Amino acid sequence: EAEVAQSPRYKITEKSQAVAFWCDPISGHATLYWYRQILGQGPELLVQFQDESVVDDSQLPKDRFSAERLKGVDSTLKIQPAELGDSAMYLCASSLEAGMNTEAFFGQGTRLTVV
Amino acid sequence: AQSVTQLGSHVSVSEGALVLLRCNYSSSVPPYLFWYVQYPNQGLQLLLKYTSAATLVKGINGFEAEFKKSETSFHLTKPSAHMSDAAEYFCAVSGSFNKFYFGSGTKLNVKP
Predict the structure, then answer these.
(1) Given an 8 Å threshold on Cβ–Cβ distance, is A100 in contact with B42?
(2) I need a surface site. Which of B52, B66, B74, B88 has the fewest CB within 10 A?
(3) What's the gap in Å between the CA of B99 and the closest CA on chain A?
(4) DSSP characters for A42-74?
(5) For position B97, what pLDDT does the model report?
């Protein structure tokens, strides 16, 4: 069964350091999402791609976060510099297309701890 | 604008008892609604989705949900809880460009 791949699963970093997460969506899925989930809360969308284009990054803290999906396939989310408040689960998801009835498939997530 | 509200951040039931997790939505367009389950340190797994084909939707693991437009609700139920159902459950609505809006989640505890 096809899955969304994310790495690493866990990451511990010191504040002010740079950190990067990688996501490989299900093959053929045009839409890719990055979500942040703070402990005890629901996922919050950071950025959404349609192929290689950004559809929505309104909640992405652009002074420290960046995301790219250069060839419209895999994607990288970067934080520089990391802050203590960035500790959270970072979830990548993909969906077949931008239609309103297509569910999102999630990866296992990356648990980030900033110390 | 779309949003969902999940009533009750924690629900506790006995094994074999009915599970009822509540979700109310707000949507300016006909909604597409989803329930996801999340186990500790895992991603989200789709339980079921409402596609407007039928108001009663059956999902995996014996869960089902009923869409009630008049009540703007999409509550999740399971007739008999199992220990393996203990997890966190999220209701979501999708809007323009398939952007998903998630509720704050309900943690289900199943007592033996």
Answers:
(1) no
(2) B52
(3) 8
(4) --EEEEEEETTEEEE-TTS-TTTEEEE-TTSS-
(5) 76
Name the pLDDT band for A20 (thresholds 50, 70, 90): very high
pLDDT in tens, B34-56: 999 999 888 999 999 998 778 89
- Please give the average per-residue pLDDT across B5-9, as a whole number: 94
Distance from the B82 Cα atom to the nearest Cα atom in chain A, whole angstroms: 23
Please tell me which of the candidates B9, B32, B43 has its beta carbon nearest to residue A108. Answer: B43
Q: What is the end-to-end Cα distance of chain B in Å, rounded? A: 41
DSSP B7-41: E-SEEEEETTS-EEEEEEEE-SS--EEEEEEE-TT
Q: Which residue has the tokens 């389950």?
A: B37
